[in-house]
Amino acid sequence: MSISEYAIQQWLFAEAQGRYDIDLAESGVQFQLLGDLEIQPEWGLDYSLDRGRPELRQAIVEMYGGPSGIPTENVAVTHGAQEALYLLYRTLLRSGDHVVTTSPGWQQAWEVPRHIGCDVTVLPWPPGTRFDTDALIQSLGPRTRLIILNSPGNPSGCVIGADEWTAVMEVAAERGIWVVNDEEYLLDFGRSIVHRHPRAISVSGLSKVFGLPALRLGWVCAAAEVIDAVVNYKRYTTVSNSLVWERVAEGVLQRRAEHVQRYRQLVEPGLRILQDFARRHPEGVALVPPQGTPFAWLNTLVPSPSRDIAERLLEQHRTLVMPAEVFGAERALRVSFARPADLLEEGFDRLGKVLAELG
Description:
Blueprint: H1 7-15, E1 22-23, H2 54-64, E2 75-78, H3 80-92, E3 98-103, H4 108-116, E4 119-124, H5 133-139, E5 144-150, H6 162-175, E6 178-182, E7 200-205, E8 218-221, H7 224-234, H8 243-254, H9 256-280, E9 285-288, E10 295-300, H10 306-317, E11 319-320, E12 322-323, E13 332-336, H11 341-358
């Protein structure tokens, strides 16, 4: 049975490819350059370990910290967070299981479980609204195996509050349900859900906050038996990550504070530029204030579907944004703002022209 077309990647890599010179669609901070990294010519080009180098896994668990600490046996290195999530779905789920996730969100979260044969409940979580724990709890049943969440969230830019997390974790613990949170945008891993109960799973990587998507370096942090299953499945797919990029990643995490500072130096002024743009176009868009992400959700107020807005912006102004339709929603755009100021000013000026034409 074929899996559904991946709408996000279809938009980025097929429909839009080669047609833009300003990218406001990226979900991470402005990418870095190879010259920003430390690479040594004497490094060997052997395979790495299927779990990742022990030194890298140690750097990851030290970043998580927490009251009791996490052993390296609870971490596996993957090809980005997306592979980590895919490996989790393939190892935790069986046909007939029930899965709960939210929308707008990442299509992988519902399509891969469905492809496995799971019954999937996709709960609406409109950007700018409080996470509905009551709806989540009511959706659970005797076959519920996994809850898939993303906070801080992509594409909404919203977070699940402390009280909501407590409610989710309590019911998951009572019923023996696994909870995975995509934590790509989390800056303080001492607050990761893995510190909340034994069936909590954290997935993250170096793509979004660090601006290093080309490294394809992610990880999963979970109970040892989950990690063992993930690693065994990975042996059938990518075997291991690049040894070179794992060594680079070790250096990146050793200087993590510098990279987080770079992230903030792009996010803070970029957000001010975006806020100013939204204030100047009150009849075209309504900004959902982002909570810890380098992008934001803009509800569109003009009569045209957001997909049409994105296509016109691409065709007439060579500027790329993400229409809500690729995330399972409507009437909104996800736009990046962790970019150089001159690029943002020009990109938003082009978007403003399209909104004026359609308003």
